[in-house]
Amino acid sequence: MSKDIRIKKGLNINLVGAAEQTTSKAVSSNTYALNLNDFHGITPKMLVKEGEEVKAGEPLFYDKTKQDMHFVSPVSGELVEIVRGARRRILTLKILADKEQDYMIHKVPDLDTADAEELKTYLLQTGGWPFIKQRPYDVIADPDATPKAIFISGYTTAPLAAELDYVLDGKRQELQAAVTALSRFTPGKIHVSVGKKGDSVLERMKGVELHKVSGPHPAGLVGTQINKIDPINKGEVVWTITPQDLVILGELLLTGKFNAERIVALAGSVIKNPKYYITKIGAEISTFLYASGVKEEKFRLINGDVLTGSRTNTEGFLGFYNNTVTAIPEGDDYEFFGWNKPVFDKISPTRALTFSWLQPKKKYDLDTNTNGEHRAFVVTGLYEEVFPMDIYPLQLLKACMVKDLDEMEQLGLYEVAPEDFSLTEFVCISKQPHQQIIREGLDLMQKELG
Amino acid sequence: MKDKLHQLKVKYQGKKMAPAFNALHTFLFTPNETTHSGSHVRAADDLKRTMNTVILALVPCLLFGMFNTGYQHYSAINGFPESFSVLEHFLTWENFWLGFITVIPLVVVSYGVGLAIEFLFAVIKGHEVEEGYLVTGMLVPLIVPVDTPLWMLAVAVAFGVVIGKEVFGGTGMNILNPALTIRAFLFFAYPTWMSGDKVWVHGAVERAGTADAISGETVLGYLAQGNTGELYQKYDLAEMFYGFIPGSVGETSTFLILLGGLFLIFSKIASWRIMVSAVIGSLVMGLIFNGIVDAGWIPEYSKFYTLMSFDFWQHLIVGGLAFGIVFMATDPVTGSQTNRGKWIYGFLIGFLSVMIRVFNPGYPEGVFLAILLMNVFAPTIDHYVVRGNVNRRMKRLKTATIYPSASDEVDTLKTETAQ
User: Fold this and answer.
1) How far apart are alpha carbons A126 and A120 in whole angstroms?
2) Cβ contact, residue pair B49, A352, below 8 Å
3) Measured between alpha carbons, how far is residue A331 from residues A101, A252, A346, B274, B281 in Å?
4) Which of the 8 DSSP states describes residue A256?
5) Which of A332, A410, B224, B318 is the most exposed place for a label (fewest CB within 10 A)?
6) CB < 8 Å from B in window 371-410 of A
7) Dihedral (C-alpha) B342, B344, B349, B351: value to the nearest 10 degrees?
8) CB-CB: which of B31, B38, B130 is closest to A434?
9) Does B338 touch chain A (CB under 8 A)?
10) B173 at A interface, C-beta within 8 A
11) Residue B409: exposed, middle, or buried by beta-carbon count in 10 A (0-12, 13-18, 19+)?
């Protein structure tokens, strides 16, 4: 039995350059890299020295506070460089890949009989654990906690993001194995959501509570679904994981092999031929970027979708959690009287001489211009129109800005992740950095209370 | 020009005068700023566009105010036309020109003084010049009597911008609506000027006491004096609705205010919740007063009798009520910020406006006082609305599933939070 969730508040950002549903294999990358910024809140302790050889799936480092949590190499090869930043903080690990890939094969646990402890130890050792994230705080799940439920969103609403129904096709076995393993970790339910109209392999999972979701973005964000299905209270923990990471977990559980392969959507108006590529975590983006071709010299390359992704460049590497790479034009140009003339080519939540409300289906070619300067919060009521959670977004943001822990807690900061504020950030007239404000609020809260 | 200005911007970067330059630069060009964190794309609207939309909605009121200034002036001298025709008697060059040379100085002083202070504060404090004053500067000339001396206006604007806004931290931080602070300052600092039957029609003040003396009594003025006979002889309801009556420059035409309000609601710039609930509030208060009169609880010689017996819905078409509801109460910074709070906030503004209007002995208008009062209470309203959300969350906590369950820790956590 599935339950329907209908989201009314929100905004679909239709952009030019959606990936066409054909998949090619990307040429294999020479070097692979793990960007440590992807693992928020982790302090790495290296297990491998520069110049040493590793197998695919062999641990590279562990977390200082959770020492059994291993982070493994996506490929076999030589660890050629440990890029460090200020105060010798490790930023990136670069691995020169072997021609012939050599995998580390683990002894797989028996999924029918293994208990939570055994599975936990297995996933922590083999590098599958970091795919599981937790709320509160939106960080890698604490293996010592017991979540009240686990949430998996199989519904894609983010602009230009990889269509999950498409990329998960044929992965039923892996998904089921991972879901079965996850179900041991919680006495509660595993909530899986799929689009109401789509046809997802996730619909045929056993042992899950299925939800059919419809409505505009952010209906596909897992935070929205948690809020509608079973909101997080103080003291509670829920885990989330994306379906594509489930596939890697599933293969790890079935074959004992950490296979970092994943299907990635290359999209955006700058891309000549936007489509899907089979590649690996940490691969050089240029290995498939130029296969599709770019229309301009100067553009913004994003690891992830345009709302939540992180900025990278043509020498960058595919992020640990990303299944989308987007390229959009940079907007570092002035516009004459841009603030008062009618606007037809940009998306707007209002009708103040902006005309995107006339054609809700039209696809736009947005650039990275902020379309205005940073200001204090002035306008009210606009965020609520695109924010479906039962939370007061403006008040929560202000509580985070003034670092009022009591208020942050009472207004529901436990329930949110920065990505939940990506759409309010998009429509913000004062151009405030919402996601950054929420991230800082979460970090402060974890430090003080967590 | 684009490149030259860009070079200048780079040159000024980090300098004291940068905010002043940037304010002018961004007036001409939206900046070349790109996203740094979070979402890589942003919606088209910025604060300038928002403010500009409000100004667009105000322009018809301003133009009408100019014509009306001339019309009221010449009619007071030459007598009202027998059979009034808009084209023949109202939309004339003569009317417009007189209105233009009387009203434009008010606009110039309002923007000049206000923006000068904004620029000064921006340069001193090193932040960008924020757009809040664009609307305030337009509202001010529309809510003052036409013969307000310019020096008074300048003093009031300086007071309003500094005390009403900048001391709190500028746009977005103020507690009171700056335009209404300015209006209130004028009213309380120069009460003899700002009330009575002279200041509303251009030229009436200087002619007072001479053989050419003219009267410029407002509709509310007549009502407060119980002088309904002369009132209805002079103005009918249609004239009140379309605004061919004396009053502050831009507040007389309920028709144009209504159009402006509809435009603001359509463009999603102003809150329809506040507007609708304020209208309901004023109708309710009007009905209560009418009811009191009908019940015979108040004798006819009472000085409140006329205003109380004034048909409840007609309160909306005289005085500044409509203007206040559409353009002042909807200020997002000083109003309620939650949707439910907006209903309460708007209702009380309408309710109190009519109440103060009827009971104010010195001056028969209450909109600006009601809005200022509710500005002060808006955070309180929001507080209780937000508490509702917090309480819902607290209630949920009682059934929280925290693992490891059944431990004392969880129970203490629950009781701690409940306290």
Assistant:
1) 10
2) yes
3) 41, 42, 12, 37, 47
4) S
5) A332
6) 371-382, 384, 390-392, 394-395, 410
7) 150
8) B38
9) yes
10) yes
11) exposed
Structural domain range at position A164: 1-27+102-330
Q: Does A148 touch chain B (CB under 8 A)?
A: yes
Q: Which residues of B279-304 are buried (b: 16+ CB within 10 A; e: fewer)?
A: bebbbebbeebbeebeeeeeeeeeeb
Q: Which residue has the tokens 């023949």?
A: B88
Our count of domains for chain A comes to 3
Measured distance CA(B100)–CA(B93) in Å, rounded: 10
Q: Is A350 on the interface with B (CB under 8 A)?
A: yes
* Nearest neighbour of B269 by CB, restricted to A159, A352, A384: A352
Residues of chain B with pLDDT under 70: 361-362, 404-419
Domain membership of residue A258 (yes or no) is: yes
Give me the residues of B, 117-136, that contact A with CB < 8 A: 128, 130-132
A354 located within any domain:
no
Same domain, A145 and A276: yes
Residues A434 and A320 in one domain: no
Give the nearest partner residue to A373 out of B31, B386, B414, using CB atoms.
Answer: B31
A residues 55-94 closer than 8 Å to B (CB): none
Q: Which residues of B touch A391 (CB under 8 A)?
A: 389
For the segment B154-166, what is each residue's pLDDT rounded down to a tens digit? 999 999 999 989 8
Alpha helices (H) along B247-359: 254-266, 272-294, 305-309, 321-323, 339-359
Whether A135 and A217 share a structural domain:
yes
Q: Which pLDDT does position B406 carry in this prediction?
A: 46
Asked if the Cβ–Cβ distance from B47 to A235 is below 8 Å, we say no
- Check CB contact of B49 with chain A, cutoff 8 Å: yes
Distance of CA B304 to the CA centre of its chain: 26
For the residues A379-397, what does the mean pLDDT come to? 93
Same domain for A66 and A113? no
Do both A82 and A110 map to the same domain?
A: no
Half-sphere exposure of A275 (CA within 13 A, CB side): 15
Domain-embedded: residue A89: yes
pLDDT per residue over B338-386, tens digit each? Answer: 999 999 999 999 999 999 988 876 677 788 899 999 999 999 999 999 9
Whole-number pLDDT of residue B214: 74
B383 in A contact zone (CB under 8 Å) = no
Same domain, A256 and A218: yes
Domain stops at, among A97, A115, A147: A97
Count of helices and strands (H, E) across chain A: 10, 21
Q: Closest chain A residue to B5 measured between Cα atoms?
A: A334
